Amino acid sequence: MPSPLSIDVAILGGGPAGCSAASWLGQLGLTTLLVERAPRLCAGLAALDFAQDWVLGEPAARLADLADQYAAQASATPGLALRLGAQVESARHSADGWTLQLAGGERVQARALLIATGLRLLRPARYFASPHARVLDAVSLTAQRATLAPGRVLLLGAGDNAAENALFLAERDFDVTVWARGGWRAQTHLVERIEAHPRITRRLSTPLPEALLPDADGVTVGTERFDHAAALLGFEPEPSAFALLDAHARQRAFVAGDASGRWHPCVQTALADGVQAAKQIEQSLRPQVAAAPQRHNNRQVIHLQGLRFRANLGVLDFERTGPQPIQVDADVNLGALPVVARDADIGHVLDYRRVRAAIIDECTAEHTDLVEALLGKLCNRLMGLPGVVGVRLKLTKLEIFPDCEVAISTELGAW
Ligand SMILES: Cc1cc2nc3c(=O)[nH]c(=O)nc-3n(C[C@H](O)[C@H](O)[C@H](O)COP(=O)(O)OP(=O)(O)OC[C@H]3O[C@@H](n4cnc5c(N)ncnc54)[C@H](O)[C@@H]3O)c2cc1C
Predict the structure, then answer these.
(1) pLDDT tens-digit profile, the chain (415 residues)
(2) In ligand 1, which atom is closest to the CA atom of 17?
(3) Which atom of ligand 1 lies closest to the CA of 121?
(4) For residue 194, which phi and psi values (nearest 5 degrees)?
């Protein structure tokens, strides 16, 4: 038996959501298998050959054109394997990930599974008992409406789809009846245009007909006759991929696009879902990656220990006659700093030679009577250096007494 194809992510469904996820997964460096049961990507969208105005930034763009663009870009994704006109027959989840069996015998081992299989239209049997073409659903009406001979048409439903089609047909001299169990669920601007349209009859909040009975010349609905009827009664997530999964596996699969049961399914939400899913999958596959290197340390301190030189300091007579040896110990707190990991980062650090020079300069510039005063001057000078948030200083008179040294220390700023 040939060894299975081993990839990071298997995506079922190559509509806008699946294409968007595939494209992002590729950019995130993950390998992907995209299984689409239609012979091309974005097949559903490609069938919607009309200009729409839902997609922000793409007013009047034809959905079929968008379908071609999404398909072309997704197909070119590095690391993507495509299976068009293909179906998954089984999908099992275990500790090792997913094992998929494709119709035709190919086996696939994937670390994550994304379901992006879209919607299926609700087609109640009492309306679609006969396959006669005079009863249409949302997709077939959209495909045929430009070529239907004008006449009397019945639209069941009061959502965006029914509203848009009612206007489309009424503007082409159809007499349209919109019949719905409840009130309008369509966009307000569509409803306002419908309310004002003389060719559209509204039959809202009315129980739906028992049956649509088509024949070669039209459709009988109770005591009425129409030339065509369309049931635009909503949708549900396409069940075929979910049916492959047991309850445990369903919890582990990712879902994107219309398959996730969007309240208002559309191209934009599908594309965005694909991006979200890709990021979530990447995160779920990389928990073992070590935490990113810390970008800031907690604190960085320059220590100058045992800096000895002669300074004019003190109130005693002999101290006024000339400089005496002192020692300065200094800790200079630079606070939390970006971690410097390359020599080229020298421009971002405080040069300790500046600290040393500032101490010597401050202590030798003039005579200071009190050690405390000199410590104060040193503190101010060092705190004025760039990035310094705290200093600890110890100043020692090394030869003030023959039998001991004398030191005073201080601490200032943040520690
Ligand atoms: C009549 C109509 C008009 C619309 N008008 C607009 C509009 O004007 N503007 C707008 O933004 N949106 C519109 N939409 C909605 C838009 O088409 C969808 O929201 C969008 O295509 C959803 O993308 P998706 O990838 O989630 O699902 P889909 O585009 O449905 O893609 C799902 C894909 O999965 C495949 N598939 C299903 N089951 C399996 C399986 N078991 N194995 C492998 N592949 C499988 C399908 O063949 C399909 O290609 C309209 C929809 C309809 C029906």
Answers:
(1) 678 999 999 999 999 999 999 999 999 999 999 999 999 999 999 988 888 878 898 888 999 999 999 999 999 999 899 999 999 999 999 998 999 999 999 999 999 999 999 999 999 999 998 877 899 999 999 989 999 999 999 999 999 999 999 999 999 999 999 999 999 999 999 999 999 999 999 999 999 999 999 999 999 999 999 999 999 998 999 999 999 999 889 989 999 999 998 877 899 999 999 999 999 999 898 764 445 555 778 889 999 999 999 999 998 888 888 899 999 999 999 888 777 776 756 656 788 999 999 999 999 988 999 999 999 999 999 998 888 899 999 999 999 899 999 999 999 998 9
(2) 25
(3) 53
(4) -65, -45
Ligand 1 pocket by Cβ (under 6 Å): 12-18, 35-38, 43-45, 48, 52, 54-55, 63, 87-88, 116-119, 138-139, 142, 161, 238, 240-241, 257-259, 265-268, 270
Best probe residue, ligand 1, of 267, 269, 271 (max atoms within 8 Å of C-beta): 267
| Beta carbons within 10 angstroms of residue 344's beta carbon | 8
**Å from CA of 259 to ligand 1 middle:** 9
Distance 116 CA to ligand 1 centre (A): 9
Burial zone of 98 (CB within 10 Å; 0-12 exposed, 13-18 middle, 19+ buried): buried
Q: What's the start-to-end Cα distance of the chain, in Å?
A: 67
Q: Are 378 and 395 contacting, i.e. CB atoms less than 8 angstroms apart? A: yes
What are the structural domains, with CATH classification, of the chain?
5-121+236-285 (3.50.50.60), 125-233 (3.50.50.60), 301-413 (3.30.1130.10)
Picking from 325, 313, 322, 319, the residue whose alpha carbon sits closest to that of residue 376 is 313
List the residue whose alpha carbon is closest to atom 45 of ligand 1. Answer: 13
Residue among 412, 410, 408, 411 at smallest CA distance from 314: 408
Q: How far apart are CA 377 and CA 363, in angstroms?
A: 9
Candidate of 11, 23, 63 to mutate for ligand 1, largest count of ligand atoms within 8 Å of Cβ: 63
Contact 32, 22 (CB under 8 A): yes
To the nearest 10°, the Cα dihedral for 133, 134, 139, 145?
120
Q: Quick one: tokens of 396?
A: 């020692």
